[in-house]
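It would be a great kindness if you could assist me with a short task in structural biology. The matter concerns a single protein, recorded as an amino acid sequence and a row of backbone structure tokens. Kindly check, if you would, that the fold set down in the tokens agrees with what the sequence suggests. Thank you for your consideration; the sequence and its tokens are set out here:
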Amino acid sequence: MGQHKRELGLAWPVESIIHQERFSGSTLFETKVNAMKLNALRFPIISSLLIFPAIVFFPACLIAQLPANPSAITPSVPSLESSEVLPNNNSNNNSNNNAPKPLGRMELPNSSGQYWVEYNLIPYTQNLKNSERPQQAILDWIILETGSDVWFNEPMGILNADRSTLRVYHNAAMQKTVAQIYERFVNGVTEPQAYSLRLITVGNPNWRNKATSLMRSATAQTPGVQAWLMPKENGAIFISQLRTRSDVKEMQAVDIAMVNGQSQALEQLRSRNYLREYQANTTGTWPPFSPVSNEIREGYKLNISPLMSLDGKSVDLMLKCDIDQVERLNSVMIDLPTQMNQPQSVQIDVPQLVSWRLHERFRWPSDQVLLLSCGVVAAPAAAQVNNTLLGGNAPTLFGLNRILPTSASQRTDALMMIEYRGPASTQLNHSLTGPNTAPAPGPYPLNTNNAAAPISRGRY
């Protein structure tokens, strides 16, 4: 009986089950079902008693491990300003593998067969004592030939130069390409060479009708640009054909003495001022708004850099040309708030620009003339500003300029002729101490601002 009492909470006594079997089968079935329900209820109760302390205790452990100040958490990669990554400390004491480690002994990767070569630049730079960074031209032409990605991606490469040494770390194929460019600078022509440059505009592109038989097409990558090559004799005939046209204007005609590989900048710009906006006056009470003007420099900027081959039979030319012109200034009326709640109407100008860009490399035989057509674009000259009573964009008497339409800027076919003329000492009759220019005889009046700008050695 005592044993039955101890097992009462877990199972029914066997004697009771047997005793119930004596009365009916249904009673025995109900008794067994009740026993199964009691066993199923016993497991959740015991499990709940065991899990509840764990639910309460686990978050408490996490909270106890969090620091009081969240900013005090140590990052996976230490700051570069921390003492763990300074060169004066022992890198072995740094237990973090992600931290930068200064190398006590430089070891460059050479998995692709890279090796170090130093090239002597003194034979080239010694004649350019007045130039600030003559070695920059060599770096620019190397990157122009190889591209910039090969020096910043895999395999690892290094390209560096000062006035006396060019340092290159790369594989054999890249070293060969660099050596070819280096040879053209150091063992090529060292004295200044003369180049003739003409910038001509033609109102109608039908000049091609008579000139097609004088020239042959050349490759040009820039959309809208056409290139031709012609013998120098045909170039003279082409100029004589243009001389008979009334829609031709020569914007620039210069002979430039240039050092091999160096760059030369030519430009013809003028400033156009316009009223951009009105800003609230913060320095006084009257007037409540002050006009703010802005400036646009329109015209053309030209940058050229020639590099001759070792035998002097071909010329590589890097050409960059930018043309910007204000087609018109659109007048817009705006309302400014006033203290009397009566808006004040004022006029501002919104510029309508026409721009064109050319940045390409050309190669042609030095005994021929290179002719480029930029297509019918904005005229590479500053537009004439109409300041008459009825014209112009500034407010005029009676506001007639707001009623009469303004004319659009002129569109012309811009032509550029480049010719190699030989050593400057025999072709030009002026001092060769710098990149000076001299007017070249031509059939059209020359602009008085033909003097070239100083050399520009910025990257292409």
The chain is about 25% helix and 35% strand. The two ends are 106 Å apart (CA to CA). Residues 1-26, 385-408, 430-460 have pLDDT under 50 and may be disordered.
